[in-house]
Amino acid sequence: SMPRRLNRMSDSSHDHQILSLIDMEGFDPKEITVTVKDGKVKVLAEHSEELTTARGKDYTYKKLTKEISLPPGLSEDKVIWSL
């Protein structure tokens, strides 16, 4: 039955833990760098934009940096991330 199948799916992902959810709105995936090193996950994103308007040029620049410490005992090669 469907409920049993859903329970089995949730049980199989039970040992996965979400460390962080970060709002990356306004950044293109190619502007985002994620590194896992020295027990930390580091997220760096930079976006710059130039718009020509009736008044001239408008420049937009934004930068996001985030550092998340891994729980003790978690191997760096077990960390996965997605956008």
Question: How would you describe this structure in keywords?
Answer:
single chain; 83 residues; mainly beta; Immunoglobulin-like; 3-stranded antiparallel β-sheet; 1 helix; 41% strand; disordered N terminus
Shape: elongated
CATH topology of the domain at 29-70: Immunoglobulin-like
Low-confidence stretches: 1-14
Order of helices and strands: HEEE
Protein name: Outer dense fiber protein 1
Subcellular location: Cell projection, Cilium, Flagellum; Cytoplasm, Cytoskeleton, Microtubule organizing center, Centrosome
Family: Belongs to the small heat shock protein (HSP20) family.
Organism: Corythaixoides concolor
Task: Give your account of this protein's structure.
- The structure is a single chain.
- With 83 residues, this protein is mainly β.
- The chain has a domain at 29-70: Immunoglobulin-like.
- The chain is 13% helix and 41% strand.
- It contains one helix and three strands.
- It has one helix at 2-12, and strands spanning 32-37, 40-53, 56-69.
- A three-stranded antiparallel sheet has the order 1-2-3, with no helix packed on it.
- Strand 1 (32-37) and strand 2 (40-53) form a beta hairpin.
- The longest helix is centred in the first third of the chain and has 11 residues, at 2-12.
- The protein is elongated and about 55 Å long.
- It starts with a helix and ends in a 14-residue tail after the last strand.
- 0% of the residues are buried.
Summarize the structure.
This protein has one helix at residues 2-12, and strands at 32-37, 40-53, 56-69. By secondary structure, it is mostly beta strands. Residues 1-83 form the SHSP domain.
